[in-house]
Amino acid sequence: MRKIDPDANRFRKIVRGKIRENLKQYVSQGELIARQGKKSVSVPLPQIDLPNFRFGQADQGGVGQGEGDEGDPLGAEQAEPGPEAGDQPGEHVLEVDVNLEELAEILGEELELPNIEPRGSSSILVEKDKYTGITRNGPESLRHFRRTFKQALRRQISSGSYNKENPVVTPHREDRRYRSWNTSKVPQSNAVILYMMDVSGSMGNEQKEIVRIESFWLDTWLRSQYENLETRYIIHDAKAKVVDAHTFFHIRESGGTKISSAYNLARDLIQKEFSPEEWNIYLFHFSDGDNWGGDDTTHCLDLLNSELLPAVNVFCYGQVKSAYGSGQFIKDLRQAYQENEKVLLSEINSRDEILPSIKTFLGKGH
Fold first, then answer.
1. Distance (Å, rounded) from C-alpha 210 to C-alpha 212?
2. Which residues, 6+ apart, have CB-to-CB distance to 216 below 8 Å?
3. Residue 89 carries which DSSP code?
4. pTM, entire model
5. Euclidean distance between CA atoms 146 and 167, whole angstroms
6. Residue 31, Cβ neighbours under 10 Å: how many?
7. What is the spatial distance between Cα 17 and Cα 30, in angstroms, rounded to a whole number?
8. Sign of CA dihedral 211, 217, 218, 219
9. What is the C-alpha to C-alpha distance for residues 205 and 203, in angstroms, rounded to an integer?
10. Strand 228-236 relative to strand 240-243: parallel, antiparallel, unpaired?
11. Distance separating alpha carbons of residues 260 and 266, to the nearest angstrom
12. What is the rounded CA–CA span in Å between residue 359 and residue 346?
């Protein structure tokens, strides 16, 4: 272990504690999303100030050296204090890169999320190479140095050519040993998230921002649970279509709402690309609760019962409060699925309710 490792580990514990302490703030403000990289996020920690050493110039002298009388000001002549000068200390902000897996672990600890148990029929077999032994033949890139050296030393000792006064060991071609491997098939769980969002006129920018923040944390946790995670995005008003992530979170639409259009498209995607026999499927739908008439709500329930719920791990519906939405759809879902563990419902009235919503969706470990 390097000398710096204990200090580095202690610092990482401090960082984890600060993130947990301010997790609700990070989630509600959504500031981590803009700082996201491929495998990490940059977390601002304003309450940690790292000490550091600065090297001065050798010819500057030390304390109490040089010309001058007692009471003379140090340094250059100083200006009179004015109203522009501040008298309060500044805030020291340190940005620390945190691995997404570690961020997911912090989220899981804080919300007490259980690890997800993949559906039994949703694992596919993949080939995996595992080094299991040593062989006399192989590529030089797999040469086992220790075994090769040991074999050469053994040969020289047995032949009497080893000199203790000059202990030089020179491997011959027959001394070389190589790592060998076997290819085995192991189960690998795959998962897909289908995000659906109402983009009708009643869903404003704040509602979409809440969806964007919650989706980031849902993604972060699910990626920590599955080696292979795919994501698809569906937007809908009276019609539904598949879009990319940027369009999903930034599009501005108007018009009416027909939720069944999104459920129909989700069913088609599952049938074409994501067989329930090979994939763990997660449906997340966000809306303000408006829908076009009772007939379409009945059609939605029929699609859920016959097509979607049998195929998915869970169906999560998050209703975002809007000044223009009626909020009726979640009431219809509650009435229809009071005792169905696959249907998870959450009302998100503000950013402060994003964390409780995440716990509602992920807290059962499905």
1. 5
2. 30, 32, 33, 36
3. P
4. 0.65
5. 16
6. 15
7. 19
8. positive
9. 7
10. antiparallel
11. 10
12. 10
pLDDT tens digit string along 96-111?
667 777 777 888 887 8
**How does strand 123-135 pair with strand 178-198?**
antiparallel
Residue with tokens 């945190």: 98
Structure tokens at 119: 């559906």
Burial class of residue 217 in the structure, from the number of CB atoms within 10 Å of its CB (0-12 exposed, 13-18 middle, 19+ buried): buried
* CB 110, CB 22: distance < 8 Å: no
**CA–CA distance, 200 with 22 (Å, rounded to integer):** 34
The residue written with tokens 């993604």 in the block is: 219
Residue 245 and residue 197 in contact, taking contact as beta carbons nearer than 8 Å: no
Residues 346-365 have pLDDT tens digits of: 999 999 999 999 999 988 77
What tokens does 13 get?
A: 């514990």
| Furthest C-alpha separation in the chain | 96
| Whole-number Cα distances in Å, 360 to 25, 66, 185, 354 | 19, 69, 35, 10
- Stretch (H or E) spanning 55: none
Structure tokens belonging to residue 328: 């009726």
Half-sphere exposure of 20 (CA within 13 A, CB side): 15
**How many Cα atoms within 13 Å fall on the side-chain side of residue 333?**
27
